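Q: My labmate handed me this sequence with no annotations at all. I'd like to see what the chain might look like in three dimensions before we decide whether it's worth expressing. Could you predict it?
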Amino acid sequence: MQLTDMKWPEVKALSTDTPVVFPVAAHEQHGHHMPLHTDSLLLGEIVRRAEERVGGNILFAPLQWLGNSHHHMDFPGTLSAEPRAYLDLLTGELENFIQHGFKRLILLNGHGGNMVPGAQVVFELRQKLRNRSDLLLLSTTYWENGDPNAARNDFVQTQMGHAGEWETSMMLVIRPELVGDHQAVPEVPFGEAFPTATRGWTMPDRSEPGHIGTPAAATAEKGETLLTCFTDGVCDFLNRTRNWDGHSWES
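A: Here is what I predict for the chain of 251 residues:
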């Protein structure tokens, strides 16, 4: 079910155990060969495919395209919410639906820079509402649901990266006309930044052109594998939230 298409009495009539999904993505630079809106376009496709399969039982809020992208601000065209304002924005969205009576709320993320804020939001909100044992507050990132390397053995990358093989492959499926000459783009290695630590960084620390990974290895065939794998994983995750018994720690 798409919240954008519903009338308020229809929302009121839903079971308060209906999972509500808040897709959150970004609008930021993706190197020389990929469009600024890549993260939002890809998450929108994952949501579209997932909604076709589980949509009658799960409510999808409109995709929030503005993300936490300050680490990309050296590259023109990037739009970013102030980090603390972004925490307030996401918290407010969840609180809106808690006020409406819903209890199973999921931030479905499509941008690496949103991972920490999403986790912080659900952690802090749960502490604020610590008397509500019936709440299920979750934040997950779509590419952490599913293992595409188990589906085929010709991926060069073993993780997402940024405008690399995986994202470029998926864009070749959904919007190939927006992808530049990716086969001419050189690899930018992931590197290893002080293991055991989380390092504060901006994209120029890691990549002058703005991508990380191996765009030249991208193909539309790989992209369809990735989209299928991640959609399967997201659907499984959403079904587990729907089937949660309402009180236990485990799904």
